[in-house]
Amino acid sequence: MTSPSGRWKLGLLLALSTATMWGVLPIALNGVMETLDPLTTTFFRLSLAAILMTPYLVVRRRLPNRGKLRSPQLFFQLLAAGLLLCANYGLYVFGLQRTSPEAAQVMIQIAPMLLLLAGVFLFKEHFSSAQWFGFFAFASGLVLFFNHHLGDVFVDLNDYGLGLLIILLAAICWTGYAIMQKILLQEFTSEETMLAIYWLGTLLFLPFCNFSSLGQLTGMQWALLAFCGLNTIIAYGSFAEALVHIEASRVSATIALTPLLTVGIVQLIPIPGITAEPLGVLSIIGAILVVCGSITTAVAKKAS
């Protein structure tokens, strides 16, 4: 593995760019879904990413190696990864539609934590005491952040509670995708797999699109829709480039700030069409614990 370049300022800036992109994404998606349904929104997000990424890889001669896809094993592994990530995209917007940007962004942080746990139970990695401390801080933070909504899930399941469960399912799908991606990276580059997945998602969501609503989009919503498509390419590109300059643990720790960015933007800036979560002291402490727990688990050294 290539060592980081040491240009930590550039690496930090790129990691912060990724966190910012992901932090504002649910807000942009929320604005688009005032008119478009979740599946049509997801179709445009994936198709725009595919259309923009294809000529870039063509020019750089980095298109997926079709010869490798003749292997049934590799083909079905790539298909499984694509279906899981598409499910993550679709389920996330369905959950967002029923909850709020803040809730969706905090809840989806379960995904990287599940991936770390998968490393323990599937790949026989070992957690240090500090990492387990971070995990329990994260779990406690989730309970505190959603303290006023626990009854919506465990007592009388309503639309909000259903939205949280849908986002949890989206996080599980992302974890499955990430595990498959780890396997696929032995044969494909990340760009090859992402391009294949974007086109798969475009074809998968196309039959479920409702294009009749496009004429109702405002100029701002068109801009938000374009941003949602660009967001994926810019965020993942910045993420990959950040790993070139600083350690993966530092990148993960920086990206863990994403929920706080979302919460801060929605709580402090009045945004038409978005009702801020009524956050009390416990919820704010919970959000901080979620972030601190994520950072601790990512940065702390694994047990030998």
Protein structure class = mainly alpha
On the 0 to 100 scale, the average pLDDT is: 85
Rg on CA atoms, Å: 19 Å
User: Total number of β-strand segments?
Assistant: 0
Between the first and last Cα atoms, what is the distance in angstroms?
20 Å
Q: Main beta sheet: strand number and arrangement?
A: none
Helix/strand order, N-terminal first: HHHHHHHHHHHHH
Helix proportion of residues, in percent? Answer: over 70%
Dominant shape: globular
Question: Number of folding domains?
Answer: 1
Proportion of β residues? under 5%
Which consecutive residue ranges, at least 5 long each, have pLDDT under 50?
none
Task: Give a written overview of the molecule.
Helix content is 73%, strand content 0%. The chain contains 13 helices and no strands. Helix 2 (38-59) packs across helix 3 (72-98). It is globular. The mean pLDDT is 85.
Structure at a glance:
The chain is mainly alpha-helical and 304 residues long. Helix content is 73%, strand content 0%.
How is the topology of this model organized?
Elements: H1 8-32, H2 38-59, H3 72-98, H4 101-107, H5 110-121, H6 129-145, H7 150-154, H8 159-184, H9 190-205, H10 219-245, H11 248-255, H12 258-268, H13 281-299
Helix pairs in contact: 1-4, 1-10, 1-11, 1-12, 2-3, 2-9, 2-10, 3-8, 3-9, 4-12, 5-8, 6-13, 11-13
